[in-house]
Every structure is written in structure tokens, then in C-alpha cells.
UniProtKB/TrEMBL annotation:
One matching Pfam family: Ala_racemase_N
CC cofactor: pyridoxal 5'-phosphate
Signal peptide interval: none
Presence of keyword tRNA-binding: no
Official protein name in the record: Pyridoxal phosphate homeostasis protein
Modified residues (N6-(pyridoxal phosphate)lysine): K26
Similarity annotation: Belongs to the pyridoxal phosphate-binding protein YggS/PROSC family.
Entry superkingdom: Bacteria
General function of this protein: Pyridoxal 5'-phosphate (PLP)-binding protein, which is involved in PLP homeostasis.
Domain spans labelled Alanine racemase N-terminal: 2-217
Any one Gene Ontology molecular-function term assigned to this protein's record: pyridoxal phosphate binding
Organism, scientific name: Aquimarina amphilecti
Length: 221
């Protein structure tokens, strides 16, 4: 097996310079994150707030932390002091809480709206119509401590390339439509280990890659 550093270099070499790599380090020990850090990686993604906060406490403070998992409103306060970007915003209620906690910490937190593109029911996210309605709502204008900077989506977990491309094209088209009126909209967060090349072909500007960097995850402990 290749080292974390070799994996990172290999991925960095295959993605265009304008695409940001989020190293998804969920379930991995801080020693693995440190290895990636020493290889130059600064943007890390986690999906559990408690785990991310523990790692934030232990690791160098110039790491840029992205919360990529589903967020419960009552836990936003734990990451508000340091989180850079929250990928899976799917309601006005959550956005308001992020704004409130960001304000308490005198910060601005970047947010992406999660769009439901997969066929599976289990995936969270907004429909296109609900995302547009949310962005056009009066209430959103008063939220001074959040910046909605783009969209995030997860394709169906399948070998069917056509299906994945269809889903990525759907979110790409919504993204292109929204950038017209929204100069702050700059990021399309699509693509994981199995599908990031397809995602880049569909306009991804940010890929979230875990297992191809750190190896397969072991959830048994
Ligand atoms: C775990 C996870 C990833 C990374 O998945 P890999 O297949 O290991 O690259 C990306 N995005 C989200 C939202 C995740 O939860």
C-alpha cells in the first residue's frame, strides 16, 4: 500500500489546480492527519462534530476544517469557534443557528446548500425548488455571519457511470443557474474517491476524498 503522502501527491497530480482537495479524515487517527499535514495538506473534512473538535484541539491551528456530514442544530455551537465551512446545510433553521453561533464567536462561517441528487431516500438535502426558495427568502438576507458559497451533492453509490453523470449534471446545471445572480457562489462540492474524476468533468471545484488518501475506513471499533 502507498503512503498517505504518495496517495496525496497522486491525487493532486490528477486534479486541476483550481479544484480544492478536502482530505476526508473521519475515523482516522490524528497521526494520519499529521502525515497528510506534513505532506502539505491543509484542508480536512470530518463528518462528526465531536471527533472534529477533538482533532482541532490536538492538531496545528492553520488547518482549515470542513464539516461534511449532516449537522444537528444543537451541536453547531461546538464547532462555531473554528469551523471554516459547513457542506450540508439543508434548512433555514440550521442556517439561522449557524449564523447565531458564528456571531457569538465574531466570525463568518461559509456554508454550502446540500442538494439531493441521488436516487436513494437515505441521502439528506434540498430539492432544487427548495434551494432556490431558500436563497430567495427575505430571512436569509439578515444573516450577516454566514456566507452561502456554493452547493454540495452526493451521487448514488453505484457502478453505473451514466447514472452518476446524470446526477452530477443536474447539480451542475443548478449551480450554473445560481451563479448568475450570486457573485458569492463559487464552489461546487461534488466528487469522492470513487467518482471524483466524473465530478471534475461535470464542473466540480471541490472534491472530498477519504479512502483514496487514508485507506479504507474501519467502523468496527
Ligand atoms: C466519507 C465522505 C466522503 C469521502 O468518501 P470516500 O469514498 O472515502 O472518498 C465524501 N463526502 C462525504 C459527505 C462523506 O461523508
Amino acid at each position: 500500500m502507498n503512503s498517505i503522502e504518495e496517495n496525496l501527491k497522486e491525487i493532486q497530480n490528477t486534479i486541476p489546480e483550481k479544484v480544492t482537495l478536502v482530505a476526508v479524515s473521519k475515523t482516522k487517527p490524528v497521526s494520519d492527519l499529521m502525515e497528510a499535514y506534513q505532506a502539505g495538506q491543509r484542508v480536512f473534512g470530518e463528518n462528526k462534530i465531536q471527533e472534529m473538535t477533538q482533532k482541532w484541539e490536538e492538531l496545528p491551528k492553520d488547518i482549515i476544517w470542513h464539516m461534511i456530514g449532516h449537522v444537528q442544530t444543537n451541536k453547531v455551537k461546538y464547532m462555531a469557534p473554528y469551523v471554516d465551512t459547513i457542506h450540508a446545510v439543508d434548512s433555514l433553521k440550521l442556517l439561522k443557528e449557524i449564523n447565531k453561533q458564528a456571531a457569538k464567536n465574531d466570525r463568518i462561517i461559509n456554508c454550502f446548500l446540500q442538494i439531493k441528487i441521488a436516487k436513494e431516500d437515505s441521502k439528506f438535502g434540498l430539492s432544487e425548488t427548495d434551494a432556490i426558495a431558500l436563497l430567495n427568502s427575505e430571512e436569509i438576507k439578515s444573516l450577516a455571519n454566514v456566507k452561502i458559497k456554493g452547493l454540495m451533492g452526493m451521487a448514488t453509490f453505484t457502478d453505473n457511470t451514466e447514472q452518476i453523470i446524470k446526477e452530477f449534471k443536474k447539480i451542475q446545471s443548478l449551480y450554473n443557474q445560481l451563479t448568475v445572480d450570486n457573485p458569492e457562489f463559487k464552489i461546487l462540492s461534488i466528487g469522492m474517491s470513487g467518482d471524483y474524476k466524473l465530478a471534475i468533468d461535470c464542473g466540480s471545484t471541490m472534491v472530498r476524498i477519504g479512502s483514496s488518501i487514508f485507506g479504507a475506513r474501519n467502523y468496527s471499533h
